[in-house]
Amino acid sequence: MRTKRFLAALLTAVTLSATAGAHTPGETVTPNFSHAIPNIPGKSLVAVEVTYPPGSASAPHTHAKSAFIYAYVVSGAIESQVDDGPARVYHAGESFYEAPGARHRISRNASATAPAKLLAVFVVDSGDTPLTTPHE
């Protein structure tokens, strides 16, 4: 029962972070999957889809302190810069990761004419919310 309450709270936190300014208008963040990892006590797997209309971008942000993120470009092209690494454009079928505590400086649709979609998969401490915190 605690796992179900946690998962409901986690999905609510993802949804609230998406609507509370963590992402710019026009970008859509949709919960995709959430489940406690049974053989790693205290850890959960959470996936969200981030859909970018043409020219849309996320505000610079960090994620929950415990979050390791695997990001997979489902369609289109996404420009990303994590910490002080180089900005890079990832195309459909390519992926990247963010280590716990990383600052995601750039996350945007690389196209001004075509939409793009990203699947972000978090391995995170159960209860570590919010998943996304915007920065100036």
H/E topology pattern: HEEEEEEEEEE
- CATH top level is Mainly Beta
The CATH architecture can be given as: Sandwich
Could you list the spans in which at least 5 consecutive residues all have pLDDT below 50?
1-24
β-strand percent reads over 45%
**End-to-end distance:** 38 Å
Lateral strand order in the biggest sheet: 1-2-9-4-7
- What is the makeup of the main sheet? 5 strands, antiparallel
CATH topology: Jelly Rolls
Please tell me what the overall shape is. globular
Number of helices: 1
Helix content: 10-25%
| Average pLDDT metric | 85
- Total beta strands: 10
Structural class designation: mainly beta
How would you describe what is shown here?
With 136 residues, this protein is mainly beta. It has a single domain (2-129), classed as Jelly Rolls (Sandwich), CATH 2.60.120. It is built from one helix and ten strands. The chain has one helix at residues 2-19, and strands spanning 28-36, 43-52, 61-63, 68-75, 77-82, 88-91, 95-98, 103-109, 116-125, 132-134. Strand 5 and strand 6 (88-91) form a beta hairpin. It is globular.
